[in-house]
Design a protein that fits this description.
alpha/beta; Rossmann fold; single chain; about 240 residues; 6-stranded parallel sheet
Length: about 240
């Protein structure tokens, strides 16, 4: 677990945001890292729903989904077009999609959500805990309570911050140039974990460190979730 959550503040300047150019490095290193990534533990075939970030669509999660498919998961896009932000259509569509996958496989569904998609994922799990295997968020600022216009709302943050009653892993980066990393941390409980990676915000879906961490989390046997083990090589790569 990381140290105590620091006071939330979004004081990032232009040089912090230029860190998003790191996506070009992440894309360039993905190919060479692929042989190692494919050595990750294999899945057990359970369904995984992947939710895109703000303004993203299923194309933005293509690499992540193909990788998890290669590890033997039943991976599914959200099929709701571009993520323009919370709306009745989006909320209803996500619930319908989630229930359809749960009914189809008759198994608990893991949810991976990128940025705003991670906020959706946590709320889905909060509504359907018996049907949710685990939640993994990628740079999701649920601790800020952003409204669609981009302004933080303390009351909304207070509602969103507590984790749903399922295993939850937050993957975050201190070099995130889009959202404050402090807002992306889960509260410390027996069923939560926070994994720090070196990544841009827009590159999380193609970052090798992120992909390996997701694979590690999903490979755990149902009902035997435990925090990320920072041993061996992982002790040097992950905080």
């Amino acid at each position: 677990m990381p140290p105590k959550r620091p006071e939330l503040q979004d004081d990032r300047g232009i040089f912090d945001r230029l860190g998003e150019l790191g996506i070009f490095v992440e894309l360039a290193t993905l190919g060479p890292a692929l042989p190692i990534l494919l050595q990750a533990p294999r899945g057990d075939g359970h369904p995984v729903l992947v939710l895109p970030g703000m303004f993203g669509d299923d194309a933005s999660t293509f690499v992540l989904r193909r990788y998890l498919q290669a590890l033997d998961y039943q991976v599914h896009p959200w099929k709701l077009g571009r993520n323009w932000g919370p709306s009745t259509e989006i909320r209803d569509g996500i619930r319908t999609r989630f229930k359809e996958l749960s009914d189809r496989y008759q198994r608990k569904v893991s949810i991976v959500g990128w940025s705003l998609g991670g906020i959706y994922a946590r709320e889905l799990a909060r509504q359907f805990p018996p049907l949710t295997r685990q939640v993994i968020t990628l740079g999701s600022p649920f601790g800020a309570g952003y409204r669609i216009e981009g302004e933080p709302d303390p009351a909304l943050a207070a509602r969103l911050r507590p984790p749903p009653p399922v295993p939850c892993t937050a993957i975050y980066s201190k070099s995130d140039g889009v959202v404050p990393w402090e807002a992306c941390l889960e509260q410390e409980t027996p069923m939560t974990d926070n994994i720090e990676v070196t990544s841009s915000h827009i590159g999380m879906g193609v970052n090798a460190m992120v992909l390996w961490a997701i694979a590690d989390r999903l490979a755990q046997k149902e009902g035997q979730w435990h925090p990320f083990e920072r041993t061996g090589l992982a002790s040097y790569l992950y905080a």
